[in-house]
Specification:
Largest sheet: 6 strands, antiparallel
Strand content: over 45%
Helix content: under 10%
Order of helices and strands: EEEEHEEEEEEEEE
CATH class: Mainly Beta
Length: 145
């Protein structure tokens, strides 16, 4: 026991766990998984207020399959970071366009309109973090989510 923390070994790795009323570990099988109704995108919620009781940040992992696109939108009250872990994809950020690939990091600032598309033949995926959790997500075209 280290102060109010403890160390635990999971699958050969040491993980620092914080003791609280919220869970310290949630198995992947138990994380919320969402499939887009717009296209084939998959999302796994990693850190949400419902899962860990915090609004300091929000995080998920999203996969865009070939041809998938997201709707243009922006977030109020949060910086939105993207950490690409596989494939290549296109980030539209206000009136700018960026090609992203594995290892790239991008930021959509508070209020910046952004959307993604996968023009490639393989999956494009990234971790995304909002700091703090956004107060609101606004869709540029209301019914296009």
């Amino acid at each position: 026991m280290l102060g109010s923390n403890c160390l635990q070994t999971i699958a050969g790795s040491v993980v620092l766990l914080y003791l609280s009323n919220m869970p310290s570990v949630i198995a992947f099988e138990q994380l919320p998984k969402i499939r887009s109704t717009r296209d084939g995108r998959n999302r796994v919620d990693l850190v949400t207020e419902e899962l860990f009781g915090t609004t300091d940040l929000k995080a998920d992992h999203i996969t865009y399959h070939p041809g998938d696109t997201s709707a243009a939108h922006y977030h109020v009250g949060a910086k939105h970071f993207f950490f690409v872990d596989a494939g290549t994809g296109i980030l539209h950020l206000d009136d700018r366009v960026f090609e992203l690939s594995k290892g790239d990091v991008a930021l959509a600032d508070d209020g910046e309109v952004h959307w993604f598309e996968n023009r490639g033949t393989g999956d494009f995926s990234f971790y995304e973090l909002w700091v703090p959790m956004p107060a609101e997500t606004v869709w540029v075209v209301e019914d296009d989510q």
